[in-house]
Amino acid sequence: MARIDLDHIRHAYMPNPARDEDYALREVHHSWDDGGAYALLGPSGCGKTTLLNIISGLLTPSEGKILFDGRDVTGLQPEERNIAQVFQFPVVYDTMTVSDNLAFPLRNRGMAEAEVKKRVAEVLEMIDLGDIAHRKARGLTADLKQKISLGRGLVRADVNAILFDEPLTVIDPHMKWQLRSQLKLLHRRFGHTMVYVTHDQTEALTFADKVVVMYGGEIVQIGTPQELFERPSHTFVGYFIGSPGMNVLPVTLEGANARLGQHSIVLPGAAGPTIGKRTELGIRPEFVHLGREGMPVTIDKIEDVGRQKIVRAAIEGHELAIVLDEDSSVPADPHVTFDPAGINIYADDWRMKLGG
Amino acid sequence: MLELDKVSKVSNGEAHISDVSLRLESGTLNVLLGPTLSGKTSLMRIMAGLDRPTRGRVLVDGRDVTGHPVQKRNVAMVYQQFINYPAMTVYENIASPLRIAGADKATIEREVGRASDLLRLGPYLQRTPLNLSGGQQQRTALARAIVKKAGLVLLDEPLANLDYKLREELRAELPKIFSESGAIFVYATTEPSEALLLGGNTATLSQGRITQFGPTVDVFRDPVDLVTAQTFSDPPMNLLAMEKHQGKFVKPGVRDITVPVELSHLAEGPCTLGFRPHNLSLAAGPGTTPLSAKVMVTEITGSESYVHLTHDDQRWVMLTKGIHDIDAGKMLEVHLDTRHLLVFDRDGRTVRARPAGA
Amino acid sequence: MDKTWNNKAWFMVLPMLLLVAFSAVIPLMTVVNYSVQDTFGNNQFFWAGTDWFSDVLSSPRFHDALMRNLLFSGIILLIEVPLGIFIALNMPRKGLGVPFCLVFMSLPLLIPWNVVGTIWQVFGRIDIGLLGYTLNALGFDYNYVNDPFDAWVTVIVMDVWHWTSLVVLLCYAGLVSIPDAYYQAAKIDGASRWSVFRYIQLPKMNRVLLIAVLLRFMDSFMIYTEPFVVTGGGPGNATTFLSIDLVKTAIGQFDVGPAAAMSLIYFLIILLLSWVFYTVMVTNDAKG
């Protein structure tokens, strides 16, 4: 288990990067806590896999250093970094039995056979594969194979970090719930530093203590799930997290009020000047209250998605999504109010601090 | 209209499809929902005419087409993998079915223009598919299926290989696109949430059988049996085995739950209660009943919390508003909203509400 | 899989069926016909029953040739398969070296068989051949015309030179289809080079290796052209393989009946051995 320091890391796949756009990873400078569970979240091509490969050592960054517990490991090979990794598609050694698969990383490091047996038995119990311990891995289902991969990731107690590269992609929805909660439990129990790459917000939010949202080769926000939900620091975070994503409406600021068309919306605090910048108000569908008071809206469509209803409405000509409970209904003359706690103001897509 | 009449498919002694009867109307969107290997793809192959059913008939507009090969049917198909002609531009890719059909130049131009507008491919028409993102590649495949003006469009997990947000966008657009053509759309997926967002009708599949077919939300709210309810729940449905005894559901260690009047006709004896994660909450409310459970682990999504629980040996999930980080191992009192309770009898059939007084 | 019917497909297959009938079935029937009859020319045939078969099966000449064939196939499999795997493992996976290596590897396969024979026939000659002359100049007593051992070595080296490429190309195809994640996982698991080969590369090459072994076995068992050109079956009968013996019997001595019986036995042996090979390897494969 180790703290991971990413020291001014940049990476380009081309030989002589000149402009910012040439970098797949523009600039990452962060320190990740020992024993933390981190999720790297973002759309494909955002640089999250590049960053993971830099941490695992499969890739050497063009610039910058990476440190485990203060030790520079930038030049070290993956096998020298003492990490474990679980890949998107199950990687199992087909000709070995399930327990030999789990024992493999231990035996390669010359662990005594008695110790290996004990450790493998523990992991088998953790991932619930005791029944098939002596079956050959070949011919097992994708679910089971991926469980073996997870087990191989967990088997070494002394690893600096365990890395996951979209590990649940090939798993059926029901199984995902089980595996995910199991992972979380294991993290609680053993306190490994874990880094989990995914493009699925549910996976990222439920797994991680801290979610690292990436976009266009940059980290746009690192925060707890709650921070990402309530205080997205970039409109992309608001859009990418939450479904539907945050509503973004163009406004002009008037002190502690925001003007949207002919309506004035009270802000939780006054914002600084935004001269020359695009000013927008962000509000999540969960913070929009539909009722008989407030600003009038027209309703396009109501989507019944089971436990919730998603109302697609328009306010002053702008789209507005509203989330309603299963049992709520839409009033005849619909108006909306915005919960001040859920209002954020953005200048050129970055969140502004609202003063008291 | 596409009709499957008692269709079965056995291959190498294994039943892939068992006795499926289904009627799909023109101009509708129909979701096939079920886990991997439940028979979604097998069923689509039979609908397309790629495979011949072992027993049963396939009817199009009342005409028996059971043995007709796929070339003779008016069918388009989109797969999970992005399948396009790699050497052709996007424009040529979309135009290809029209060229095969021998359409004239003006028609091709008009139809490709329409489809590319609908799928927002306008700026990319002169590129080749490999220079596009995954989402754009799949849009190209969808556009090709649409210009074909097929009577039946089959979509086999078309969004499974796409980013979560791209999926959300395409999912929102698809119903719009579907409603513009008069075709029958069949959409296979493993994800209940995808079925709910698409709307339309849903057929739930389990082990090669269709367990229920009807409007999507109705199937979600009123599943006919336990299997359907489980297939159509993500997170999984929570179950509680109880016994009906003198107008109450009873179980040692659990406070009695009054049997709703409309379910009073249920026979005395063992039964199973089913409820979804969002019907459990931390706070008591009108019509709730308390249950005790042990906390295994909590997952927080930012605005809500998934609390994984065990009750006896049953695993439950509670979805509750707000951030609640509860310690593992703690015994917790949770409150079940009985208004949306599902009751299954001994054979796993849902007990249907009987109008009071009947 | 019972696909939807389309009877038109059968018309497409028809030309192929006719071709196979003319090229394989009819000649085979002719051979069967000859094998049970005796003739003294003039197109007169006499029923011979199974005489030719029992003659051939009990002839020491046939046994010797069969033994030579088995020995030859065994040796070249033992050399070509490991050598082929070794070369394939060391070929580059990406970069400019790939096309170069592939073309280089394919070259021997593109040369007609009799030319291969001729090349080696000349190459090994002690008077004008580069190999034969050099060996002798270095003090080795090498002469494939007189010495049975030297003749064997020459034929085997020639076959290895000619056909190892096939094994290499098949193995290479198997190797490049292994996803990178496997190598990465092995690195992270701390696997040695040998473990990577034993647990990742070899299992993933299993199927192509099966094909390689089968092809090489069948081909080597039927070898004719190259030894015929180089040694003509000699010295003595040292390199007289079944196929060469067969031609000697049929054309050299014009014993059509025994030759036909021999061809059938030969054919059945290849069929049987290939089947045994295939079954053994497939069952092995299934067991893992």
Describe the structure.
The complex is a heterotrimer of chains A (356), B (358) and C (288). Chain A is of the alpha+beta class. Chain A has two domains: 4-235, Rossmann fold (3-Layer(aba) Sandwich); 244-351, OB fold (Dihydrolipoamide Acetyltransferase, E2P). Chain A is built from eight helices and 25 strands. The radius of gyration of chain A is 24 Å and the shape is globular. Chain B is an alpha+beta fold and 358 residues long. Chain B has two domains: 2-231, P-loop containing nucleotide triphosphate hydrolases (Rossmann fold, 3-Layer(aba) Sandwich), CATH 3.40.50; 235-351, OB fold (Dihydrolipoamide Acetyltransferase, E2P), CATH 2.40.50.140. In chain B, the strands form four sheets. A six-stranded mixed β-sheet of chain B has the order 6-7-8-3-9-10, sandwiched between helices. Chain B has a five-stranded antiparallel β-sheet with strand order 13-12-11-14-20, with no helix packed on it. A five-stranded antiparallel β-sheet of chain B has the order 15-19-16-17-18, with no helix packed on it. In chain B, a hairpin with a 2-residue loop joins strand 1 and strand 2. Chain B is globular and about 75 Å long. The model of chain B has no long low-confidence stretch (mean pLDDT 87). Chain C contains twelve helices and two strands, in the order αββααααααααααα. With 288 residues, chain C is an all-alpha fold. Chain C has a single domain (68-287), classed as MetI-like (MetI-like fold, Orthogonal Bundle). Classes of the chains: A alpha+beta (356), B alpha+beta (358), C mainly alpha (288). Chains in contact: A-B, A-C, B-C. At the A-B interface, helix 5, helix 6 and helix 7 of A face helix 5, helix 6, helix 7 and strand 16 of B.
CATH superfamily of the largest domain in chain B: P-loop containing nucleotide triphosphate hydrolases
Query: What is the H-and-E element order of chain C?
Result: HEEHHHHHHHHHHH
Low-pLDDT stretches of chain C are none
Outline type of chain C? globular
What proportion strand of chain C? Answer: under 5%
Could you give the count of β-strands of chain B? 20
Could you give the count of β-strands of chain C? 2
- Based on CA atoms alone, the radius of gyration of chain B comes out at 24 Å
Strands of the largest sheet of chain C, in order across it?
1-2
